[in-house]
Fold these 3 entries.
Entry 1:
Amino acid sequence: MKKNILIIGLLALLSAGFLSCKKFLERDPLSQYTDQDLGSTDTVKYTTAGQAEALLQSAYQDFKNEYFMLDNFVNGDAQSDNAYAGADQVPNFQIDEFRIDATNSNVSRDWADIYSQVAKANTVITNVPRITDPALTQERKDQIVGEASFIRAYCYFDLVRLWGDVPLVLEEISSISASNIEQVYPKLYPSRSPKADVYAQIIADLQTTIAKAPASGSTKFIGTKGAAHALLAKVYATIEPHDWTKVNEQADAVIAAGYSLLPQYDQLWDNAHENSSEAIFEIDCIDWNTGGNWGTDMVKGTDWKKFNTPTNDLVNAFNAEGDNIRKNASIVFEDVTGLWTDRYWPATTFPFINKYRDHSGGQNFILIRLADILLLKAEALTELNDLTGAKALLNQVRNRAKLGNTTANTQADLRLAIEKERRLELAFEGHRWYDLVRTGRAIPVMNAQKDGNGASLGYNLTENKLIWPIPQSERDKNTNLTQNPGY
């Protein structure tokens, strides 16, 4: 719809004689950067409190797109040592085996999906402050902007981790006219911004969330102050150089907000403890007909070969630790004899992800939870040489899984112990790959991977493959987009 409107508007400009803009007008803009209702004049398009709430909910609903329902876990786990790609789709195999190129369909889809959500957040941030409906109080107006800022920050955090330098699009393109073509052009065809600029904007957006968003809500599917503190902790642990003092400060703010671990690990996944005291940001799903979670059907069940098959290496890691509680909550084995064969597992004991169990579409997805932040704080304290404090936090997470206290005593040993703990605690939640990259461990860990028989998987991961190629389809539309080295 918006492309049709844009074309009509541009043709009108041509007919008016604006031939100097011919080169600009002949090109197809990057639609995911633009407002959903692009018009040809500057008008106040949203005027009511109801419209403000609807705009925000539209941005939240994109957490239920294919990127978050499936690809987030492929990217975070199948790209790591936690899972094989599974199923039978070549784009996923390419991601799993570090063989992707700029034409990979997952790469182009994820780019478009995330930037579409950015555009929706921009629409909220741009338009809601202009609404004068008395039913929309200033307090609620600020909260909406704060929540939308969290959504945009979350999107850009994934974008910068996947692609490095990316276009930093912060304004809604609400109109195209003869008077603003020169200003609109760089917004429609943006260049890539340096990672440092992207991270600076992520931090600024999260600071806006902390200042304006609510402290809590009726569910955990809200970009609250606590969610912003948690995401900031992850950002400061990822940005180069890592800022461990700020990781620690942000983790403390999360703890002070009153989150607490559930008593039993399996309660996180039993579908009876949603929006729990441990959840910080959680995609709220009801059923197939009401904003359902279709992602659960992608990873478990014998009706077809599922995505994200747990690896031998992960199963061995659980077994070596004696971690039966988290292993059984995370992985279930089924006999698939006669259904399919697999290069990594025998048909009689084929593993599936067990964290996402409700095939009615009603199980929530937890994107950020307290255990993640406690382990990040432990990591920060390790780097700040508070080894006693780090071990206390590490043991708090381990003890919930009925494991004994850590035996690590040196800083080097604690680093590896926390890395292992994050792997076992957060398996199949989309974190492992990003943990390996930010700690500089991705290349040695992945190149050492072996199958169940001890044969090398031959990944040959190199530095340039730590980030993805810019989609060729996007570069075809926008020649200002440069390509990442090695692609």
Entry 2:
Amino acid sequence: MSAKKIKKTSKSNDTIEAISKISKAISSDLYLEDILKLIVTVTAEVMNSRICSLMLLDEKKQNLDIRATQSISEAYINKKPLSRGEGVAWKAVFENKPIVILDVTKELEYKYKDIAIKEGLVSLLCVPLAVKNRVIGVLNCYTSQPHKFTPTEINVLTSVANQAAIAIENTELMVKTKVIQEELETRKVVERAKGILMKQEALTEEDAFRRIQKYSMDRRKPMKEVAEAIIVAHEMK
């Protein structure tokens, strides 16, 4: 086997191993921030990137901000979020497809040329993070030399971006589910406490609720905690 074929096979094995690492991380109990950090670190290694970063879309503020990078550059880490429509990253978001820039220092749409020059960033591959056709961020890979990204490299980064998007989406769903469960539990406890007050003090349902609400505000305690205290006091009688 020629040296070129051996090198190609080795790179292919590295890519498979990298994607496997990311898949395992996503299905693990790691915190989202740790998963994202692992994604950019492993991706930087396999793509031979000077800097790899993951930016997420803040729908309220309408900007893209860095959530993870393997870079230790303070200038890059602390750069301002990209407002809606600014820079190459937003182009990837709007078009929902990979954007390739041969030299960011010469690209009109690239926002932070000063940081790119300082950090020696040249070529960029920017891939959208999409879940069910909804773009939630981008994954960036920079090289330190002019580089024409191959279709294979674009496919690899797209695959990683898709896995990252799934991890983020799953975390958001878990958080939403937990919030809904907590709201339901609070509602059940408050309903029970209301029933106790209505019976004990001959209050209407509305007055019983206001009593719990006022106590909660006066004592700066959650309504669930106040309701539980009413239930415990009733059971101790």
Entry 3:
Amino acid sequence: MHEALTVSAVASYLSELLEVHPLFGDLWIEGELSEFKRHSASGHCYFNLKDAHALLRGVMWRSDAARLAAMPKSGDHVLAHGRLAFYVPRGDLQIYVDRFVPAGAGLLNARFEELKARLEREGLFAAERKRPLPPRPRHLLLVTAPGGAALQDMLTILARRCPLVTVTVVPCLVQGERAPDSIVAALYQAYTLSGDLIILARGGGSLEDLWAFNDEAVARAIFASPVPLISGVGHETDTTIADFVADVRAPTPSAAAELAVPALAELHEQLHYTRLRLQRLVDQDLKHRRDAVQSAHALVERHAPRRRLARDRQQLDDLARRVLRAAHMATERRRLALQGLHGQLEALSPLATLARGYAVVRNARSGAVLTSPHEAPPATALRLTLRDGEVAATVDR
């Protein structure tokens, strides 16, 4: 016989077992609410969750109840999310609920909203981390089912719009239990292929068909992409977690292909405008250089040695003419002055007086000019200077 256990020991063991078991710490339970009450004082909610064969007591704390969009009531068929616990004092098994979802919305929708809210809080959907698509990708990677219609549609559109782009298909499963692991593996394989743009795509289907693209591991693999990624999953009305994480969401795989590459007509138009712009730039540059050469030529012409020599020669000729003219005028002035002096000399010259019949009388012995008869007593020898020569004479009285 085994050793007997106390009621407290058994109850505590059950409580600990429920706390450590991974299944009971995070689960959804579907059932009908009964005896639903919210205490006005505490704000906590107490209720039963039951189906045709069993009943489970439940509690929702005030903080969780405050986040409910609408308060449920007895008789509602719901999905309840929470954790199982064993309430030792009363020996009750109960669920602590943090969320109610109407059963009609489905468990998948509830899980979708839960994962979406958690990843959004972590920043996986942040707009500031979204990258722009390359305008002209050279290597495009398609992560999708290898035999699906979605792939054929994308290849047709890519060949029509931009046949020059290199396309590599990275195959994966897009539906079923193994699809999330297959998509994650394909994405990480694509990251090693040196592409500059990735499309993750599959055709339309039900929520269950597209569920692989709502997987957390797939979302985190998309978030890890080293290059921009387009999601093209389902139809226009379908939205997956992959769409929120991707850099760009396309409503369909075909639309994703349209977004990924420019059409040939667009490339031709861009090339045309680029050519016109380059021509304008070349013309402007040539005009600028031509103007610069002309300005330099004019500057050289203004400062050319031959032009400077011509200017200096002109200046020298002008200066020579001015010097000659000044010398001529100075000479003329001196000639006229000399003529005046000559006239004065002529007028004052003794020779002029002599020409009129006068003579200069000198003492023949002393040569002194006599100005009075008393200076020449009788027998004084004289020398008379006439206009044309000299005459000797003697005073006789």
